[in-house]
Amino acid sequence: MQKVQLRDVGNHLILLAGVAFLILPILIIVASSTHQTSLLVSQGLQLLPGNEAAKNYTQVLTLQAGFTDQITALDMMKNSLIIALGIAGLTTLVSLCAAYAIVYFRMKAAAFLFWLTLATLLLPLESRFITTFLVTDALGLINTHLGMVLPALAVALGTLFFRQLFLSFPNEYLEAAKLDGAGPVKFFVDFILPLSWKRGGAIFVVTFMTGWNQYLWPLMISTDETRYTLVRGIRLIGQESGPGMALIVLSILPPLVLVMIFQRWFFQALADEKNAF
Predict the structure, then answer these.
(1) Ramachandran quadrant class, 78 (left: phi over 0; alpha: psi -120 to 50; beta: rest)
(2) What's the average model confidence in pLDDT over 201-221?
(3) N or C terminus of the chain: which is more exposed, having fewer CB within 10 Å?
(4) 2: burial class by Cβ within 10 Å (0-12, 13-18, 19+)?
(5) How would residue 91 be classed by pLDDT, with cut points 50, 70 and 90?
(6) What is the predicted pLDDT for the residue at 61?
(7) 145 and 86 in contact (C-beta within 8 Å)?
(8) CA separation for the pair 3, 18 (Å, rounded)
């Protein structure tokens, strides 16, 4: 009994150490956002809070930067939200439809199409910047939100998760739908969607964070200052400045809130296969 208790204590200590290791950088950023820029430049990041929080956050929220003074924190947050929501929403929708077609339409080339989709994981966006840029330019999507969203869709990952979920459904679902006279659309709406919303929520959260943290592709495709994102704005203001740290804190909040709201669905869908539907 004593050995078991000691092992439990050791496991909890390891867990607490891991949590502290992950949270400490965030606490340092929050504390540094309350200090003067001169102090951060001379002494580096701070662990204890200062007294410049109101000034730094007010400066960020009232920011007007760029060559034409058209860049504001709210506009950058709006651009980031549009890109993140677009990537997350379209990835979830397209992946759901693709997995549904692969599993239930009994196509001869279904397996080939699935593995061809997965093969795109071997070619991340960074490895095909030039060709993707040329295609985007030919479609007239430079300096548009749609041009930032479409090439960054993570369809392969979402299709994999949805396919595994659909394969775990009993065949009786499809047979019952056929006996009720349900067609492909009705089966999709009445059976598949209600059983997939938790898995879809998990994919939405993952791809939202991916879209929110996009930097290189929006940087490459946008020359219009009004299309700047929060991640790009951090570099514009200065990473070692007090306002820059305040902008980093603001950029963390939307993904953090999203994860906190959907955390139970997220872990149920990805970690517990039996409770996924």
Answers:
(1) alpha
(2) 88
(3) N
(4) exposed
(5) very high
(6) 81
(7) yes
(8) 23
